[in-house]
Design brief:
By secondary structure, the chain is α/β, with parallel strands linked by helices. It folds into two domains: 210 residues, Ribonuclease Z/Hydroxyacylglutathione hydrolase-like (Metallo-beta-lactamase, Chain A); 64 residues, Orthogonal Bundle (Arc Repressor Mutant, subunit A), CATH 1.10.10. 28% of the residues lie in helices and 22% in strands. The chain is elongated, with a radius of gyration of 19 Å. The mean pLDDT is 93. It holds the Pfam family WHD_BLACT. This is MBL fold metallo-hydrolase.
Length: 293
Amino acid sequence: MQLPDPSERPYATPEIVGPKVRRLLARNPSPFTYTGTQTYLVGDGTDVAVIDPGPADEEHLRAILDALGDARLAAICCTHTHRDHSPGAAPLAARTGAPVIGCAALTLADDGPRADAAFDPDYRPDRVLTDGESLSGDGWTLTALATPGHTSNHLCFALEETGALFTGDHVMGWSTSVVSPPDGDMSAYLASLARLYERKQDTVYFPAHGPVVEKPHQLVRGMLGHRRARERQILRQIAAGHTRVEEMVPAMYKGLDERLFPAAGRSVLAHLIDLERRAMVRREEETWRVLEE
């Protein structure tokens, strides 16, 4: 996908995107992050929460602090700990005294080929939210939803007062999410998508990358269908003799920027692992074959 011209993006400029919600865009555009990581400020009263403070970039940190104005920062919330999401938490906490509340810490030496290479090793939450736990401030309540798949520690946050859901990288407004083993898990990702589809109270999604999702259930239904179509495509590829992941990707992702082939390969691998669990395929060293019914 062609990225928009960075000069046209509102970096370091707060935008009101919904009731009680402002958005700040970090200047870290890439083929993996689209126009950059979107940080959200939740609340319009005496205190606010920040969701996904983004990279530890001085321009972005100053923009967050400026956007706070006279309000107290009550919580710094992270959906997960990839390096484009959580590194800004520590310096923002140091400057404001706000606690870091949200996903659990998670560090792997290798999470496959990504633009940001790895998890954030310096993330230290003051409080880990489990599924269904909430935190609140002046006129706002955020409830954590465990949505593993993209990462095992991924959370979404529901703003109870408005029906908004902050979806991090689980559901993005511009692309499907990379699911990269060993931590990324396609079985868990599909179950998390199905869970969101059942939540009829969510009327709008605010993702960490890409535009606001104004028809969330329609999008999630399409994403579930897309993943099932990928499964069928993989099975056809194996039947056609393309038994290695690196052979499947160019045939399956025609027109995709080749810089994204390694990441696409990780999602294909995640699908294959899911299919193997369901006894539909079997791994034979670096190749795969379809099991007979």
